[in-house]
């Protein structure tokens, strides 16, 4: 049963920005799995990091707990949920829009053909063949580094406008 307290706690946790991609909230990124208030008043927030070794998960957990406590929830528990694993399909349409608006190419469309829909498969290919430039929309881009500022982004360059840009790696 969803209570008013659960809805309020969910809204508060959903507004927490991602520490590595601060233009996105944890809800936009699909990292926030859910928030519930138990009958005894304990708030439990569930987070699934983008990958099991994500160094930002401690900061995410601390910020969610701090905001919930500041909002008057005294007993807060933030748990990490690794199963099912996070996939790029969890990024909301709003999150994808915000990424592109900030010059970061979002991953392929949610639920695209070939998507594992909740399963993570080892992919030995270099990356997607076509990633449009978030600045000029040209499809003529190339991957220049498999890793960029964060482990979940790659660095690409547009052959049309010559600008480099990060791309959130597709993780089906």
Task: Indicate the topology.
Blueprint (H helix, E strand, L loop, with lengths): L3 H11 L11 H4 L2 E6 L5 E5 L9 H14 L5 E5 L12 H9 L39 E5 L7 E6 L5 E5 L4
Parallel strand pairs: 2-3
Antiparallel strand pairs: 1-2, 4-5, 5-6
Task: Provide a descriptive summary of the structure in words.
- With 172 residues, the chain is of the alpha+beta class.
- The chain is built from four helices and six strands.
- The chain has helices at 4-14, 26-29, 57-70, 93-101; strands at residues 32-37, 43-47, 76-80, 141-145, 153-158, 164-168.
- It is elongated, with a radius of gyration of 17 Å.
- The two termini are 31 Å apart.
Series of secondary-structure elements, N-terminal to C-terminal: HHEEHEHEEE
Q: Give the low-pLDDT segments.
A: 113-126
Q: What structural class do the secondary elements suggest?
A: alpha+beta
Please state the average pLDDT score. 86
Number of DSSP strand runs: 6
What would you call the shape? elongated
What quaternary form is this? single chain
Outline:
The chain has 172 residues and is of the alpha+beta class.
Salient structural properties:
172 residues, alpha+beta, three-stranded mixed beta sheet, 6 strands, 22% helix
